[in-house]
């Protein structure tokens, strides 16, 4: 079992729709969770972080965390073609490490 | 530009040669990380520093790889006797020493080993 799992996609949604991206993790002691956006040929860009159960909203983005079920999700409302990218879920496992463990990423395609 | 910078952006080398990459973190960040990313995969952790101390190294980091951060500012990653399997994007990130650990990435160095 991979430590952080994402469906590689592609996930295709029409412009204006809600895109839902999911991620599960294996270490129940994980404390911090991040979503990065990565355009083709570019480096990852941090878009959301979440640390406690529930929802966290930032503009069109909402991150959701459920530690009991060990999953974290990202919702993108009013999806735009410019949102087309790979979305990486990253997990910081325990308090005594700085490393992030990444999933393989989900490719999102927003069609006009 | 006050973001993370990396140099060079691209490196093509022949198998068996040594290469060195440089990373300059965001100025007030005291943690610096190195990751490696291959096509279709998420970044894989290699090592990280807190100030000048190297706190953790991945098992992926063979003895051909060495990283330094001598004065707690910029860092270098050296790969000796490169192999074709070393071809990847090498990413540097930095963060503040804080519980939230938000890491910000530089543009990366793409290494091609022929």
How would you briefly describe this protein structure?
The complex is a heterodimer of chains A (112) and B (114). With 112 residues, chain A is mostly beta strands.
Q: Share of helix among residues of chain B?
A: under 10%
Query: What's the gyration radius of chain B in Å?
Result: 13 Å
Distance between the termini of chain B: 33 Å
Which stretches of chain B are low in confidence, meaning pLDDT under 50 for 5 or more residues running? none
- Mean residue pLDDT of chain B: 94
The coarse overall form of chain A would be globular
Number of strands of chain A: 11
Gyration radius of chain A (Cα, Å) is 13 Å
Shape of chain B: globular
Number of strands of chain B: 11
Low-confidence parts of chain A, pLDDT < 50 over ≥5 residues? none
Instruction: Please work out how many helical segments of chain B DSSP would assign.
Output: 0
Most extensive interface, chain pair and sizes: A-B, 26 and 27 residues
- Helix/sheet category of chain A: mainly beta
Q: Major beta sheet of chain B, specifics?
A: 7 strands, mixed
Average pLDDT number of chain A: 95
What is the string of SSEs of chain A from the N terminus onward? EEEEEEEEEEE
Largest sheet data of chain A? 6 strands, mixed
How many helices of chain A? 0
- Our measurement of the CA-to-CA distance between the termini of chain A, rounded to an integer number of angstroms, reads 36 Å
């Amino acid at each position: 079992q991979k430590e952080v799992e994402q469906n590689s996609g592609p996930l295709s949604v029409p412009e204006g729709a809600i895109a839902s991206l999911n991620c599960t993790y294996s270490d129940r002691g994980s404390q911090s969770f991040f979503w990065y956006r990565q355009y083709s040929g570019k480096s990852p860009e941090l878009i959301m972080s979440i640390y406690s159960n529930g929802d966290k909203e930032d503009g069109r983005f909402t991150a959701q965390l459920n530690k009991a079920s060990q999953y974290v999700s990202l919702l993108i409302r009013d999806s735009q073609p410019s949102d087309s990218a790979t979305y990486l879920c990253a997990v910081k496992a325990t308090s005594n490490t700085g490393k992030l463990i990444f999933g393989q990423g989900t490719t999102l395609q927003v069609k006009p | 530009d006050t973001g993370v910078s990396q140099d060079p952006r691209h490196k093509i080398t022949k198998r068996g040669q040594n290469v060195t990459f440089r990373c300059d973190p965001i100025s007030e960040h005291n943690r610096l990380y190195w990751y490696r990313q291959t096509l279709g995969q998420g970044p894989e952790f290699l090592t990280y520093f807190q100030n000048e101390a190297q706190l953790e190294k991945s098992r992926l980091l063979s003895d051909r790889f060495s990283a330094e951060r001598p004065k707690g500012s910029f860092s270098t990653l050296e790969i000796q006797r490169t192999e074709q399997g070393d071809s990847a994007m090498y990413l540097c990130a930095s963060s503040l020493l804080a519980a939230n650990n938000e890491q910000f990435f530089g543009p990366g160095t793409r290494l091609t080993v022929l």
